[in-house]
Amino acid sequence: MSLFYTAKIGDNMKTLILTKLFPTDFSINEGIFNQVFLDYFTKQYSDIKCEVIRPIPYGLNFKVEGKKITLHPLKNKRDHYTIYYPRILSFWKYFLNYHHILYYKKINKFIKKNLLEFDIIHAHWLYPDGYVAVKLGEYFKKPVIVHCHGSDIDQLLFDKKLYKLNEYTLNTAHNIIVASNALRDKLLKKYPKIESKVIVVHNSVDISQYNKVSYNESLRRLNLSDENTKIIVFVGHIIPSKGICELLEATNIILRVRRDFKVYLVGTGPHNEEIRFRKYVSRNGLNENVFFVGEYDRDLIKYWFRIAHFSILPSYSEGFGIVLIESLSMGTPVIATNVGGIPEIITNKLRGKLVPPRDSKSLAQAMLEFLDKKEKRAEIIEDIQSFDITHQSQRIYDIYANILSG
Fold first, then answer.
1. H or E stretch covering 378
2. Dihedral over Cα of 25, 30, 36, 42: its sign
3. What does pTM read for this prediction?
């Protein structure tokens, strides 16, 4: 057994989660899937003791409402774990390859000051979180897992300024978890020598929390009425890379044929992008069929998917797409683009349909087809049980146990 690993199976395994991909009081939906998983995981496995370090950049650690300034708390206590929010200096998108320096110094000092004990560091996001985690792992002599979710690989893996840092992270980490086989293939194409340490663990949801919601209850929770209209739902960032342009263009095409549907865009995006999309809607007379819901309470997502005849995700790239699993968990089929890990979810006609990215005509054709599809909610829910959170939890637990057993 490695001298690094001091815990034994049967002991309480102490895990330190390091990530900025986790909700805060001021950004409740950011990285929410990590919080949902950890809530379930720490409840399910009482021998796992977790603590989360979620750094908050200065400038995001307070909120101004009128004349009132609210500071973000330094920590929050959930049922089975604690989240710490140390403040760090961030350069945002500038000087990207230097982000890790102050980050590492701050977290190292924070760990020692707060006497945090841990057997494993589990970092979410390749850089700077992953790099900082492996440096901490070396300092404290603990194994490190780096968990990549998609955008980090798509955006950071091929950045020339980060080449040496990413190479160091991937070669030093004990294991690298990726959310899809597509991400694994992309990673290994650039770094084939790390194949033995890369593990695919699909994101998942607690299906039991979704499939019992009724249509009428959903309408009531969303303050909507039953207008005998087919509803199409998009959930995500309202940005071009999520295929919003193509979705609006496809909607415009469909309205030449039929008008018995509504499209709800659930989410937010940069103000200038939303303005541009809203202008397109007004200019093309889509106001009665396209609605911008805005920022949403994550607890309401299941209700949006329950009222939908189908959901839609026309992204240009996607690591895995947890919203697809959420939709299917409500028995709602999905039209999505054939990119990233999406084909690992939409594997048959029951679950939905794949279309090419950046192709509004193909998207419109698929939408017209699905507007006439009969509901098969019970069959869909039965078909996607492999994405239940119990499977992901067991995989992560086994990874921890294997590391600590040597």
1. helix 377-383
2. negative
3. 0.91
